[in-house]
Structure formats: structure tokens, C-alpha cells
Amino acid sequence: MLNRIISQAVPAAGTTRRGFLKLSAGAAGGLILGGALQPTAAAAQAGTDGLATPFVHIRPDNTVVVIVKHLDMGQGTATGLATLIADELDADAAQVTTEFAPANTGLYANTLLGVQGTGGSTAMPNSWQQYREAGATARAMFVAAAAETWGVDPSDVTISKGEISGGPNTATLGDMATAAARQGVPDSVTLKTPDQWVYIGKSFPRVDVAPKTQGATHMFGMDVAMDGLMYAVSLRSPRFGGVLVGLNEAEARAMPGVIDVIRLPDRATVIAESTWQAIQARNALAAEWDFSNAENRGTEDLRAEYTALLDEDGIAFHSAAVSEAEEAKVVEADYFFPYLAHTPMEPIDVTVLFDGTEAAFWTGSQIQTLDQNIGAQVLGIDPGSVKIETLWGGGSFGRRAIYDSHYVAEAAMIAQAWLQTHGQARPIKLVWTREDDVRGGYYRPMHMHRVRAGLDAEGNITSWKQRVVGQGIAIGTAFEQFMVNNGVDASSVEGLGQHSAYTIPGWSVDVHHPLVGVPVLWWRSVGHTHTAYVVETIMDELAEAAGADPVEFRLRYLTDPRARGVLELAAVKAGTIPAGLTRGIAVHKSFGSYVAEIADVRIREDGTVKVERVTCGVDCGVPINPSNIEAQIEGGLGYGLSAILREEITMTAGEVDQSNFYDYMPLRIADMPRVDVHIVQSTEAPTGIGEPGTPPIGPAVANAVRRATGKTVRELPFSRQGLA
Questions:
Q1: Do 542 and 630 fall into the same domain?
Q2: Which of 19, 133, 505, 609 pairs with 66 at a CA distance of 20 to 30 A?
């Protein structure tokens, strides 16, 4: 049991590892609580493992610390979890702060993923009940403590905005924290009903605004600083799978600030007194690579192979009877979606300290279980001897949710090599530059689709045959057993067939997963980024062919009432189309949430696209923090718009052509439209919101462009067509 994560004070070099890796327990007094609580709070006070998942620590100084088991990379997770605790506890928002939990799968597992980790927009769905119960349990124990201390009936004790009252007596939560810790833990608690909520569904201030705007130190991985810190930058193969066979490091070693050059099997790492010195010395290394087993194909080579596969039957995913004889009209189309990079504002970084027995990593860890286990495996120590201090992530979009924890493994190898060579433990910060990540990171897989859809004479869909070609993200990884079924990787087909909000007659889907040496990974909303685009643009063309209104046509096949609800809401709120603009519509279900987006688009005089306004209807269950939902929809929409306009990763002879924001061009502020978000006041359990805003924007804009130009953009990004 613990009441604090690794100390905020960064240890100086030379401090014993056991001293600073040990998690303090009960040192400050007060009450520590979690879900699935054990018989007595005394166990928590003693620092034992008696409490299952410690989610909140109420200190005698009247601070309420919410222990956040998920990474917050800008999506507002910490604020959401703090909201749940504060509401059930009846704390004052001003007294609430947060700390990230340490790596401990037994205590902090994401119950929807089976590991301690964040992803798939599961943070709130996973924690909704768990954190509310922790807050309610704490409240019950404060009530019991106050009743005992003041000699009043528990029914006469109230808590409001962090102040406890009973008869003529008042106290703060801090005043009563130690007494509350002596109370027995109730077997069950009653949660508030919606009419009793103070913060949930209303407002709660972002817990990260103040530290981010006031220049907090040691918040992000890039901020980490400590005595004796060294900086590492690696030279990696320019082609995926290349092997380092020769290295001339003389010039690099002679450069200012260089401490060492470490050669690893597939890379060379410069260690220096600063990141800049390490980069300059890395650039001076002369390397020889063996590319015989590398991925040597370029984009056009791969595209030709994918195109050939479109002509061959794939692995069946969703089968339905197809009656082409009834077809009066047919829509046929091929689609191309390029590789995409994640490009978070904070590139990959991790600081490591290893003394031969224990290790600590400071990073924006998205899957702590994997980072801890793989770090331990590389170092040859027990996972319990590996501590992870999770820091705020400066964006991720899937980039930090690595199935192989590659950057933690790399840092571990560097730390181990340093210790073996120098015999002294020193902290090392491994930094990936943006160029490193764009040229040699992980990507949203390239995909192609082929669709043939038919209408009968009355304008009803009779058939829909769809073929998908693209790398499976989970194939060949530790996630394969969970995500690959009968040879089909779920990430390539999510949003299609039985996973769609639509019920479409004759819908059949088959899949090819070509083996390519390009490392791929989930990217914000994963497969929905291309499946929604295809489905919604085809639906729009079918509606036109049927002579039907695009909203009405979709409603015919939306049997899910929540999908119908967001589409109808967005359509009403969008109003009439402004003069000079064209309108496109898309609706999609992803990660349990429903989003409809209606885009009003203008074609500029130079032929490029300007999205003027997007109206959104959103149903993500109970809206815990409405303002945060709006922000996530705006951010997800902007991220998706950025991708469809100009972003693509291409390769020539196996080497990535792009390197930074000048040639992998994200959305500019002038391209960002006005966004109006309308939230359904649902009573359903909360679902994800970090990703669902991304899939509909691409097809909504494409449908508007088709109305303006007569052509559907089927090859992304739009810049390939001169539209951006």
C-alpha cells in the first residue's frame, strides 16, 4: 500500500537506489483509500498491501490527492478521475490535486485491458464506478469519524465543499483525516444519484492548467533534470531492419561534451553533456549498414502489391448473402490511405537510472505493465525492482502505447552498457528527435479498400462488397492472441460489418494482411480512420444515386438509436447551409461513443479546401466533464482534418522521405474551422471521447467537396488532388 508515488524530489546522483525507489507509506499520516477495500484502514496507515487499489489520499494539510492510474497526455484523464472522487467525497475542487500511480498491475490494472495502461479511450469507462466508490467510501469514513469524535449521530453529519458539519461542530477533511483512517471500511456504499451531483456533468477545473501555464518543472519527460544527468541520442538504420556492421566513431568522440559512444546490435548511441552535443556527435558518426534483411521497398512498390491483392479473395471477416441481380445502380470505388506518423508535440524521451540491482524510469508511460516487464527483462532483474514514475505526456495519439516498449528497452540497454563499461550508476536521458521519430518510428498502416455497392430500383441498398488490404497492427506481437481472430486483425476492420452502427443488407467484407517490414501502431482512432471514411463517402454516393437526402438515407440503415440521435441532433443544430458553401455529413460509432459531424466547406479561388464550420452531435454516455468533451472533440476533429489535408509518410527504396513539420505538414491554425459541439445528456455509462471525434471529419469534408466538385477524394491526402 502506498500513499505517495516516487518522491517529487529528484534524487541526486550517488543516492542509494533502494532509498529513492522505495515508495513511502503512511509517512504523512491521513487517510489512503482505494476500490475493493480491505477490512480496516489501519492497514493503509501502516503501509501494508491491505488495500487493493489506492485511489485517493486525504492529507492532514487538507489536500485531497487523487492517485491517477492512467496516463494523461492532454486528454484530461487526471481531471476526469479527480471529478469522480471530488463529487462523491464532497471535496472542494480547490483542495484537489493529482499524482500518477506507480507501475503496479495488481493495484492499478485497467480492467478493460487487463494491464496497467491507457488506450482505446478506456480511461473513463474503466474508472467510472471504481473511482466513484473510492470517493464515496472515503466520505462514509469521514462521516463515521466525525460522529465518533463529536458524539453525534452519523445522520446529523454532512460534508459540503470539503467542510464537515455535525451539530455545532465543523472541521475540514484534513482536520479529520487521521481520525477517519482509524475507522472501519464499510462493506458497501451508496453512490450519489445524478440529481445529487455537484461536479459530474457540470464543471470541474482542469488540474493541469496551472502547472502547464506557470512553468512547472519535472512535469514532462523533457523536463527531467537531476544531478549527474547525461543525454543520449542514437543513430539508427535508415531502413527498417538494417543491421549495423561498421562504425567509425573517432570524429564523434573528439567533439565537445561527448562522454561516450555505445554500440548496440542495431544502432550506435552517443552520450553527452547535453542533447544538442549528442545530436551533433551522432551526426558525425560514420556507419555501415547491412540491408539484406531490411524493408527495401518504397511506397509505389507496396502500392502495386496492395493493388494486386484487391483482385484476389481475402480472409472472410463479415459475410452476407449478396443479390447482384436486384441491382439497378452500382457504386464502385478503390481507396488509398497512406502511412501516417503520430507526431506528438513532445517527442519520445525517457530517463533511466540503473545500478545493477534496481532501475527507475521517468517517462510518459502509457502501458506501465509492459514498460516495467520489458525494462526488467532487458536488465535481467525482477519486475518488482523496476520503478516507473509516470510523467505527463506531451501528446501521444497511440505513439506511447508500444507493444514492445521499444524506447524503454533501448534506454535499458544503454544504461546497462554504461554501467558495465564505467561501473558507476548515472542517470541517462534518451531523446528521440522529431526527425528520428518521423523517419524511424511507428506508423498508422497504409491501407487500400475496394467497394462495390448496389441499389435496387426503389433506391434501397441490396449489396455491399468490401475488400481491405493493409498490415495488421497486432500480427506478430504480444497482442495477436487478443486482436487477431481467424487471421483477421481487428484493427483493420473496426467500424465495418457487425462493428458498425449501420445494418446494411448484403454487406460482406474480406481482408488481406500483407507482410511489410514497416513498423505499425495504433494511431488516434486506429482502423476507424480509414473504415469510416470509406463507409461514409460510399453512403453519401448511394444516397445521391437513390435521389435521397443524405441524412434521411443514413437513418434508414441506422438501427442503433444513439447513432440516429447524434445524427439528428447535428442536423438540427447545423441549420441551413450558408451561401457559397457546400455541406458534408458523416456519422460513426467508435470506442463505444457516437459522433456525427456536419462540415460546411468553401472551395477557395486557388482550388483548395477551407472548412469553415463543423457541427457535432456527441453521445458518450454520462458527460463527466462537458467542457473537456468539447475540447476532445475539437482536438480529435483537428487531428483528423490535419491528416486528410496534407499528411502522408512515403518511402523511397525503404527510406522514409519526410522528416519534420515542414515536409510532414500538420494542420495550421488558419485551417482550423469553427467547431460547435452538442452533447447528448445521456444516462448511459460513460464511454471514450479521446478518439471518437477523429473518424467522421474526413468523410464529412470529402462529402462536401464532392458536392462542390462532383468528385469523391479517394486517394489521401487531399494535397495529392491539389485540394490542400
A1: yes
A2: 19
